[in-house]
Amino acid sequence: MEGGYGLLRKDRQGKKGGGVALYIKNVHTWTEVEMNVGDSCVESLWVKLKGVKNEGDIMLGVYYRPPSQVEEVDEAFFKQLTKLAKAQDLVVMGDFNYPDICWETNTARHRLSNKFLDCIGDNFLFQKVEKATRGEAVLDLVLTNREELIENLKVEDSIGDSDHEIIEFMILRKGRRETSTIEVMDFRKADFDKLRELVGKVPWEARLKGKTTEESWKYFKGTLLRAQKQTIPLCRKDRKYGKRPAWLNKEILHDLKIKKESYNLLRAARSRGHGVRTTGDLKMAVHGKMQMKPGIF
C-alpha cells in the first residue's frame, strides 16, 4: 500500500457504518489473531506484532462498540479481552461508548458500564485516556496490561467532519523500570502478624462512639494507614514480576474464579424466576467449594 502501510479491516456485515480498521507500518512483522469466541458479532481486530531481538511480542487490538450493543456481544468481547490479557504485552484501543463512566473514580451509573469496569479490574488493565474525546465524555479508550508501555498520549484535533478527537500515543518496546519513582507496598516483606496486633488492640467501640459515619471512616482509615506504614515496607515499582500483584496468589485466584461462577449461577437463576430458592442453594454450593481461609484481621 502507498505510504508504507498495510491495511487490515473488518467491515460490519449487512449494514452501513461501524466496522474497524488498522493500518500497520510495513517495517513490522505481524499476524492476525483469530478469536474462537464472538468473532462474527464483535467489531474487533487483533494483531500480534513480532518483537525484535530480545523484546517480546505485542498483542494489538482495535474495537468499536455501538451505543446500542446488546449485553451478549459485550460478554463476547469481555471473553476476548480476558483471553488476550494473558499476553505478555497488550494494547487495545477504540471507541468503547461508555459515556457514563467517570475514570477519575472508576465508577459508572449504568449496569453494563459497571460490568465493563469489572472486566478491566479482573484483568488488571490500565485505561490511559484522561481527557474527553467527544463532547465532555471519554468514549475512546486505550487499555494496556503494562502501564509503562504507553507514553506521550495526547488528545487533540479531529479528522474531517468527525466529532471525535484524535488520540496519539507511543508504544514503547521496553519498559523503563530504572526511571520509576513510584513506590508501592512490598507485600512479600509485610509483617502481617504485627499488623493484626496493632489493629486488634485498638478499642474500636470506645473510639467510634458518638462519631458520624464519615468521622468513623476517617478514624478507621487513619488507624489502618498508620499500622500499614509500620508493618508493610515500600519498594520501587518494578515490572519484573509481571502484571500480577504480589498478594494475588493461587488461593485468591481460585476464590475469585468461584465468585465469578457463583455470580453467573445466581444471574441465570434470577432470569428463570427462581432467585430466592436458588440463592440459598447457591450459598450452600459456594461454602462447599470454597475453603475459607483466615483473613488479615
Automatic annotation (TrEMBL):
Any matching Pfam family: Exo_endo_phos_2
GO biological process, one term: larval heart development
Organism: Pelodiscus sinensis
MF-aspect GO terms: catalytic activity
Name of the featured protein: Endonuclease/exonuclease/phosphatase domain-containing protein
Annotated GO CC locations: extracellular matrix
InterPro entries listed in its UniProt record: Endo/exonu/phosph_ase_sf, Endo/exonuclease/phosphatase
Domain Endonuclease/exonuclease/phosphatase: start-end pairs: 62-167
